Amino acid sequence: MAAPVTLPAGHPDRVLAELADWQRGVRAQFPILTGTGEAYLDSAATSQKPQAVLDAVQHYLTGENANAGRGTYRWANRTTTLLHDCRTRVGDLIDDPDPERSGVHLVGGTTEALRRVALDWLVDLLTDGDEIVVPAADHLANVVPWQEARDAAARRGVTVRLVEMPYEPSGDYDVAALAPLVGERTRLVAVTHVHHVYGVDMNVHRIRRLVGDDVVICLDAAQSVGHLPVSVTDLDVDFLAFSGHKAMALPGLGVLWARNRRGPRYEHRGWQGSPHTVGAVSLAAAVDWFEVTDVERIARWTVALGARLTDGLSRLRDVRVLGCQDSLTLDSAVQRRHGLVTFLHPAISAADLGFVLADHGLMVRANAHCQGPAGERENSVRVSLHAYNTVEEVDRLLDVLARLDASLTTPSYH
Question: Is the pTM of this model over 0.90?
Fold first, then answer.
C-alpha cells in the first residue's frame, strides 16, 4: 500500500482539512443558509449575516430603539453610547494606532466615504498643477470621486491632473512603472486593498515606501475588512473606507477612518442628521463576531477555498480565469486570491452562464463588475466566497461547469 501523501503546512487542501470542524461551526451560525439547497457565492456584493448580528439588531429594535444625541432618557443615552462603542470597536478591528488623533466616521457606504474624502477634504487643498493617482482599473467607487474632485477644482479655476495607476498583467499594481509618475505635485494616491475582480491583495504597503512620508494615501478596503486582518498601522494609510453590508452588518452603513496626520484634520461637512443607529448596532456586533470567529482563520479558509476553485477552473478547457495566471493550481507558490475568482467562458455569455448556474442553485455575479475605465471590458462571472461557504459548494460549481463543457464538445447526431 502506498504511503499517504503528506501535504505542506500551507497547502490549500491541508488548510481546508484542518479548518473543517471550525467551518461547520461557522456555517451553522447563518440562519439563511440552514436547510437551503442553494449555494450563495456572491459575498463580494453583500455578505450574509450571522445569528449574533441578527440577535443584536432585534434586541436593540425591541428593547431600546431611540435616536442618538437628542434625548436625556435612558434609551436615547444608551443609543448614543452604542454609536460610540461602534466607532471604538471598528478602530480596534483595523488596528488604529492613535484613536485620540484619528476618527471613525459612520457614513452610507464605501462610495460615500471616498466621495467625502474627495469633496469634503481634498478639493480645497488642491492648487494649480497638482496630481491625483487614480486606480482606473479598480472599482468605480475609487475612480469617480477623484474625477469629481478634479472637476470641482476646475470650476474654481484650478487645473488638476489625474494620473492613471499602472498595472501588471496579473492585475496587481505595477510599482516600478508608478515610480516615475509620482512627484512633488502628487497630493493623493488612491488604492484598493483587495481587488473586487482579480481577488488579490494589491500589496499597498509598497505604495507608502514609494511615495514617501508626505503623500496622502486613501484605501478602499471594501473587500478586505472582515475577510482578512487589516492594520492601518502596518499599511500606513491616511484614509480607509469600507461598507458594513460587505462585513456582515446591515446595508446602508459604511465607515470612513481618517488618520488626521497629513494635512488638515478631516471633518464632515454640513448637517449630519439622524445617524443610522441600527446599522451601527449591527456593525458593532459584526466586529465582535469577527473577533470571536478569528479573521485570520476566515482568511485562511477563503484563500484555500479559492485556490481549490482556481485549480478546478484551470483544468477546464473553455474557461479563462482573470488575473494572475501563475496562481491557479493548488501547488502554486505565488500569491493567491482572497476568495474572489472571476472567469470568462468563450462560448457562453456571462449573463447566460449566470442563468444556467442559478438553475443549479449556484448564486454568482454574472455581468459587469463596476470596474473603472481601464478595467476589463468583457462581462464575466465572479464567484466570491466567505467563511460560510463549503468545499462541497465549490466542487458542485466545478462539476456543473465541467458537465457544461462536456455537453458543448460532444457531437450530436441527427
Answer: yes
